[in-house]
Amino acid sequence: MEKKLLSVINEMLENENKELLNEINPELSLRNDLGFDSLALAEFTVRIEDEFNIDLFEDGIIDKLSEVLEKLSRG
Amino acid sequence: MIFETARLYSKKIGDSVEIRDYAIIYDNAVIEDNVIVGEHSVIGRNPTPTSAVVREFDKDVNLTKLCKGSSICSNVIIYSNVQIGEDSLVGDNSSILSDVKIGNRALISRNVTINSSVTIGDNTRIMDNSHITGRVAIGNNVFISVGVTMANDNLFGKHGFNDDVQGAKIEDFVSIGVGAVILPNVCIGKGSIVAAGSVVKDNVPENVIVAGNPAKVLMRVPKYMKRY
Fold this sequence. Notes:
The complex is a heterodimer. Chain A is mainly alpha-helical.
């Protein structure tokens, strides 16, 4: 699961010519550390929906990778 | 309550109506029950005919109707043959030209200019300083953010207001971000989102997000952003 998540994030970072992640650090913030703006967040949720069939923001917007992992693990 | 300095040329005024100071209600206006017309607003004004105005107005169809529960704020100019739907609100300094129909519970915010031959659906919200050009059709539950502008003529008025002049068709549940520009004769499909600052020159399919100049499809609308 973490590997898939890492590849989704890195694909997006690569498209923006940003530095890639080596691993999933649960403390990272989507907005502040990965620099995702509202459009990037929308793209991220679409990619997660496609990959994991989970609506990340179903119960409100989340920001930390730890929260993303928690959502994914709950399936 | 009719305030002391309001001028009423129409007799078709419903119950529990409030017409505030310096408002003018012309004789072609119908004001239904529980309507508020704010200070200095003008309802049912006829277009000013000069040779500079190329669009022809139908002088026989000129009834302007404010449906029950609607509120018109201050300094609003509403021309002839306009209908404002039930419980809708038109904000300060807005101007609405002839042949416009606005649905129920719509919100037209401040400084919005709406040109002629426009339809706006129920529950649609148009925010401050936006410009809706002529011959535009806007559906129900649409959200248009601040400073959105539209055009309807690729030839800059060269041939007057002929049949080639055509504004956008904006379908139900579309959202348009701050400062977007919508160029002539495009259709924005149901549920789609136009990102802030985009320039839309081509049709947009349903349920996608478009961004950029020219606006391109980036992705489908994610579930959390869907409005229906």
